[in-house]
């Protein structure tokens, strides 16, 4: 490969990498409240997930379940109009214990992602 | 140093290169993201471009030859579970006192089908057929004239289904491959340029096997515990790969010693590409001398171009993406 061809190729590769910073990405979990794997003393009234990209509300959802697998959320996620990367769901009054959050997200570029994590309500020293 | 020695080294090297398949893919299974591995293939079936992959190491010949490879691999899904790929490699090989040789290795192609995927247990298995097309590469660097076929089984397993009491083990995952490489022609005659004699090389059947052990910081952050690490740390996957090959039949010319490398390294995962670098440590003298290095830029075409070349030719409207690169 001549130097000229190599230069052209590297320029094309750089353009492709630049394009990746401009394209729409799919949604990854950026952070959560309560935080992933955390222990909180006060029971949260809602679970909020913040993603890296805008969500399609019609195809994104959250479930919160207790240790027995019973749902403790109110059934329907809500989406912020001012912050379209965020979805949240209200939860029933939570007793001390471990809860698991299951989420499915569809980003605006039609990539589906999913994941789950747990958090604990109660005294951290009681684990 | 005669050209005969270099040629003999290259023939031995060509046998060893059977294991260095270039068909590497990333894979998503439930909450688990399996990165594209650098030394071995993984169970992934996806649209992607690995370029460049650059490696430099010293071969197991005596004296060792220094080899530098620059390779690319383009993989394209036909359906959600079936992909084909194409992988050229350019090599430069040199030994002290001998003029170096450069050229393309034999072209490698692959077809891979994902046969099983279980998101709950983060398990995936695939089957593929890799073909190294004999005679398509440069004779100067020892490209084989015989075509090599390697049917291969791949698997990946994440440990995310372990109980919460073992939470810090859950980001671990393993991948593995085992294949059987056999040539289209059992032997090949070559003319020795030094004395005009004829050498007969016997092409062995080779068991091509290996695996990886990886620890996903993205998985730790998004599925186990958010330690509030810096964002850069949350994108890293420390990894150790083993790439091995064992001649198992028709070994009169090759012997039966297992050769290969152990590759500790690290991969940084982004939304659209990954960057990886690993040390290349030969497992014995026949595998090489010293410590080499391999690095790779790997583009996720399914994410960069989700509505065009990054989707299967026969596609569904919704595709699965990486689930866990937060913070």
Written account of the structure:
The complex is a heterodimer of chains A (127) and B (327). Chain A has 127 residues and is of the alpha+beta class. The termini of chain A are far apart. In chain A, 16% of the residues lie in helices and 36% in strands. In chain A, the strands form 2 sheets. In chain A, strands 1-3-6-5 form a 4-stranded antiparallel sheet, with no helix packed on it. Chain B has 327 residues and is mainly β. Chain B has one domain: Beta Barrel (Lipocalin). Helix content of chain B is 8%, strand content 50%. A 12-stranded antiparallel barrel of chain B has the order 3-4-5-8-9-10-11-14-15-16-17-18. In chain B, strands 1-2 form a two-stranded antiparallel sheet. In chain B, strands 12-13 form a two-stranded antiparallel sheet. The longest helix of chain B has 14 residues, at 3-16. Chain B is globular, with a radius of gyration of 20 Å. Chain B starts with a helix and ends in a 7-residue tail after the last strand. The model of chain B is unreliable at 1-23 and 322-327 (pLDDT under 50). Chain A binds chain B through residues 13, 16-17, 19-21, 23-32, 35-38, 51-52, 59, 98, 106-107, 109-118, and chain B through 30-31, 51, 119, 164, 167, 221-226, 271-273, 299, 303-307, 317-327. Strand 8 (111-121) of chain A pairs parallel with strand 19 of chain B, so a sheet runs across the interface.
């Amino acid at each position: 490969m001549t130097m000229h061809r190599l230069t052209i190729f590297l320029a094309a590769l750089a353009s492709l990498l630049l394009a990746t910073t401009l394209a729409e990405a799919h949604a990854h979990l950026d952070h959560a409240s309560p935080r992933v794997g955390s222990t909180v003393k006060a029971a949260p009234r809602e679970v909020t997930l913040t993603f890296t990209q805008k969500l399609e509300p019609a195809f994104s959802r959250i479930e919160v379940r207790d240790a027995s697998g019973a749902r403790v959320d109110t059934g329907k996620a809500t989406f912020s109009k001012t912050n379209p990367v965020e979805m949240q769901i209200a939860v029933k009054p939570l007793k001390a214990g471990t809860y698991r959050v299951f989420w499915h997200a569809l980003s605006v570029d039609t990539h589906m992602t999913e994941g789950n994590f747990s958090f604990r309500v109660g005294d951290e020293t009681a684990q | 140093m005669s050209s005969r020695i270099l040629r003999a080294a290259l023939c031995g090297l060509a046998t060893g290169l059977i294991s260095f398949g270039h068909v590497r893919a990333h894979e998503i299974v439930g909450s688990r993201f399996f990165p594209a591995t650098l030394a071995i293939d993984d169970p992934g079936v996806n649209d992607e471009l690995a370029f460049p992959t650059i490696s430099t190491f010293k071969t197991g010949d005596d004296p060792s030859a220094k080899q530098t490879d620059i390779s690319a691999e383009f993989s394209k899904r036909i359906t959600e579970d079936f992909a084909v790929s194409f992988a050229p490699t350019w090599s430069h090989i040199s030994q002290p006192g001998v003029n170096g040789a450069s050229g393309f290795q034999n072209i490698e192609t692959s077809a891979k089908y994902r046969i099983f995927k279980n998101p709950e247990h983060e398990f995936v298995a695939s089957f593929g057929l890799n073909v190294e097309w004999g005679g398509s590469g440069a004779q100067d660097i020892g490209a084989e004239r015989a075509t090599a076929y390697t049917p291969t089984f791949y698997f990946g397993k994440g440990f995310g289904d372990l109980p919460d009491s073992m939470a810090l083990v859950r980001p671990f995952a393993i991948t593995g491959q085992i294949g059987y490489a056999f040539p289209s022609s059992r032997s090949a005659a070559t003319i020795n340029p030094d004395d005009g004699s004829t050498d007969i090389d016997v092409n062995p059947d080779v068991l091509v096997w290996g695996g990886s052990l990886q620890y996903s910081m993205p998985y730790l952050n998004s599925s186990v515990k958010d330690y509030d690490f810096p964002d850069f740390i949350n994108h890293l996957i420390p990894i150790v790969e083993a790439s091995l090959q064992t001649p198992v039949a028709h070994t009169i010319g090759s012997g039966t010693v297992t050769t290969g490398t152990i590759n500790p390294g690290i991969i940084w995962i982004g939304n659209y590409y990954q960057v990886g670098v690993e040390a290349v440590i030969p497992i014995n003298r026949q595998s090489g001398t010293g410590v080499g290095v391999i690095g790779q830029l790997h583009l996720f075409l399914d994410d960069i171009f989700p509505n065009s070349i990054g989707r299967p030719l026969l596609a569904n409207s919704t595709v699965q993406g990486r689930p866990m690169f937060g913070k």
